[in-house]
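Help wanted!
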Amino acid sequence: MDQYNSFLRKHISEFYDLTEEEWNFVSEFFTLKKLRKHQFLIQQGQQVQEEFLIVSGLVKSYEIDENGKEVIIQFAKENYWVSDYFAFQFHQPATMNVDCVEDCTFLALSFENREIICEKIHKMANFFRKKSNRGFIGLQQRVLSLMKETAEERYTQLLDKDPDLIQRVPKKMLAAFLGVSRETLSRF
Amino acid sequence: MDQYNSFLRKHISEFYDLTEEEWNFVSEFFTLKKLRKHQFLIQQGQQVQEEFLIVSGLVKSYEIDENGKEVIIQFAKENYWVSDYFAFQFHQPATMNVDCVEDCTFLALSFENREIICEKIHKMANFFRKKSNRGFIGLQQRVLSLMKETAEERYTQLLDKDPDLIQRVPKKMLAAFLGVSRETLSRF
DNA sequence: CGCGCGATTGAGTAATTTCAAATCTAGTGG
DNA sequence: CCACTAGATTTGAAATTACTCAATCGCGCG
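Answered by r_m:
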């Protein structure tokens, strides 16, 4: 568990350094979870009790549209947090699926425990606030790119911004993320 | 100023009730701003020092694409917060424009002051954390709707979810928000 | 060696955009 | 109060774009 704790501590220290005391308190609330490629972290219809910090591996969050086609909302890898946040926040059954594109290791934090941490440790409230701000900004960029740019532009920008991803994810999934058919993507 | 302060206090109390002391501290950091229809709250290229809580009125946030067409990221009205959050967060010049669709009243909060408030008042860190979470979830829904649904479905859902908006916003703006040409929208 | 999955290519189809023109509407000045 | 004008909306028709369906190609794995 130590190696995972040090991952978490380093992750948090991007924004705040915790004292030993704070750290001992916080780290208790996380639990380790491992999944293999193709396994579900979250499945549509389930209750979503936890959010997950990805220690290693890569997942995709997606929904299925009325024609049965995957619509990928986001890919998430090391140092990203992932959950079905709507379901998580409002205690609803998941509308999303999250499944592992690679073997994965996660640190899980329940909703209740996150609230406890944030009420107790001022720095952690600010940590999650800043994380959430970043996430918000990232999604706003995504909305803009969906609306302003063609799928081809989105593709080349993704190649540029996150070349790593292209190596780790099959093109049909990239297509589902960019919002075009795989045939169209392969004509770029 | 009292009426605006009571608006703010009520707004915050959706999540937390502040003590008199806390409230006196917090309220000092907000300043009032009024603009008329068609005036800019934020203009592309400017520094963005503040975020704004809308007390009354309605604004649109948008960018201009390479063909000179408006792409509307969001509408915001009473009780919404608005800024160019990328620029605000990272101290970059604005890429967005925010302008008033109606006469507006805002309560402005600078980045530095927000940080002060959040470092000082634990409840406010949690308040902004929760606000940001909500915003994140809202944007995630928006990404999904852009990818899963046709513009026509998005239109009828908007009519359903926010009928108020249709009254207050010309259809050409709705088109720019939904991601279709105004001609196509008028054929629905 | 052959199977299966992912990626590519081709052809026809459906949907949306663009350009153009006509119509409608709200606000202005006389 | 009415006429006028600018902006907003609608409608038509052509052009563009992306989609679907189908067939083919390529590669890794049993």
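OP: Thanks! One thing I noticed: The beta strands of chain B are 31-35, 40-42, 50-56, 58-64, 70-77, 81-82, 97-100, 104-110.
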